[in-house]
Amino acid sequence: MAKITYEAPDGTASEEVDADHITDSGKVQGVRVRLEDESFIHVPYTRLYWIRMSEDEGRVDYSPA
User: Fold this and answer.
1) Is the CB of residue 47 less than 8 Å from the CB of residue 30?
2) CA–CA distance from 40 to each of 21, 54, 55 (Å)?
3) Distance (Å, rounded) from C-alpha 59 to C-alpha 65?
4) What 3-state class would DSSP assign to 36?
């Protein structure tokens, strides 16, 4: 699991999601987070406070599929 904390319109917000549900966003310069209800939030890097996850979850596999 990963915890992402960001600046929302009503103040600071946090979401806990599977680390695999956080990707680069194609809509904003930031991250896209898929929530449990299958909706997405797009968080610009300028509004992102932190993403906390384990070291293993944070690794990216660049090998060809």
Assistant:
1) yes
2) 9, 22, 24
3) 16
4) coil
